[in-house]
Predict the structure.
Amino acid sequence: MKRLLLAVLAVIVIAGAGLGVWLVAIPGPTAFAKGATVALADYRAANPTGVPTELASADLVARGEYLTHAADCFACHTAKGGKAYAGGLAFNLPGMGTLYSTNITPDRATGIGNYTDQQFIDAVRRGVRADGQHLYPAMSYAAYTYMTDTDALAIKAYLFSLPPVAAPAVDNKMAFPFNQRWLMAFWNAAYNANAVYRPNPSQSPEWNRGAYLAEALGHCGECHTPRNPAFALDNRDKFAGTITAGWRAYNITPDPTSGLGAWSDTDLATYLSTGHAEGHGGAAGPMGEASDNSLSYLTQPDIHALMVYLRSIPATSGGLPQVTLAPAPASYRQGVTPDANPRGAAIFASACASCHSWTGVSSLSKYATLTGDRAINDPSAMNVAQAVIHGVQRKIDGKAVFMPSFGAAYSNDEIAAVANYVTARFGAEGAALKASDVAKLKDQSE
Amino acid sequence: MPTLRINGQSHLIDAPDDMPLLWALRDMVGLTGTKFGCGIAQCGACTVHLDGKAVRSCLLPIGSIGNQAITTIEAIGDTATGAKVQKAWLDIEVVQCGYCQSGQIMAATALLNATPKPDDNDIDAAMAGNICRCGTYVRIRQAIKNAAVSA
């Protein structure tokens, strides 16, 4: 009996230790690449950090502006309809509470106007704010830690060149124990590398620039890499896709079926720099914002470097079907007919067909073509439902790209019906959303 | 600066390629029978034909039209189907305020060109995106059926 208990105890201890190792021993974001890394000072090829050569002789504020866009500070530090960088965007964390982003304009009373250079670096790269308290890792300092101090200070110079906005911080609503900021010290010990980007001389200089853009600045993994139970990015499934704030961030590994493997270089570069590529559809939701506020500002060489880096990520397969490239028939009577889903088809006829066409290839705008779009070919219909709920407000090549929002016009049941109909008619596989699913998506994305 | 074929005539349009067709029709060519409703392809008031198919001119960039034939409400009566639809409209006095009706007639004509004997489902699929705030839908449906019979 005693022996059995000991054996059981041993199994529990070993399993616990194994779980602990699995939780903490996460490879670094670039550990997948062959070859040893070196300190930045010892790297002899082109400097992967800083601004592109075109901006090398620009003043500090202009360099900082480029880096601020590349790091997409705007995305989180600007509330919907709010002033730029004045904070207040809510992060709903199910089971934990709500966080609000902070004001990073140079306002002395409510922003970061009193931050010294070292305090700014500590906040951006270590997650420690001026009063010594820990930030939550919703601020992606575990990515920004790979940034050089020089680049961080260029960002500071740009932010300090902006008009100060008086916008007091909104109090977080976090439940115990998540309201205990000191606990983040443990999270940081496990998950913040706290080290500047280390170039890999076995890879090309372009790859190294792409890695710096993706990991230290653009923090792609924050949405595209699944998280472990401790909310750290699990780089064992790097860029394999996951769900963030009610939208699916897709698999951006080179897998030909579920990822980007079948995309041509031209298409991928166009998508990265404009958030749209013909035959692949366009970005909406959070990726649309990332495109409008960040990626669209990158130079073409930087876009190319990002692409070279993305192409080198180990492919992760599974999860999503092959995209259907053939348009649907021109008549509603052919293909997936209304009999299968009369309600969805009726809504499509009245609200969608005049722009998206019964074929899915829009007769009005290439940006409204559904055929070939990843979201239309995602059988969860998650992003389709979100686009219907929120609409699309994009800027591509300086021009407005717009879809109305239908979240207030149609019931959850109707949104589910039309999402199920369009995924069946234009995509690989019809979705089976219910009204309750749509209600959940609305909760997550508000 | 595209050249557009509108109602059988060529027009050189001195405007950027991304300007929607509706603006060119109304403000530059002077064809004001096509109406502005919502501006976001949701109401159908701006419907015209491109090679006989109904499109919403409020969102169609003039640079994407090329050599396709544009037909507006001003010339739809010159086509056999269009003339029948207009007569059917007048016979049972479909129109109330009339604002949406040029779009309704264009959509109905495109429907009959593609489907000469439409049933209720065909009418729903083709006409559901054309909104009428006076609620003339019952007469619109009847007029389409009458026009189909007179073919």
About this structure: The CA atoms of residues 221 and 289 of chain A lie 16 Å apart. The first strand of chain A starts at residue 90 and ends at 93. Strands of chain A lie at 90-93, 97-100, 173-174, 242-244, 247-249, 276-277, 281-282, 392-396, 399-403. Chain A has a mean pLDDT of 95.
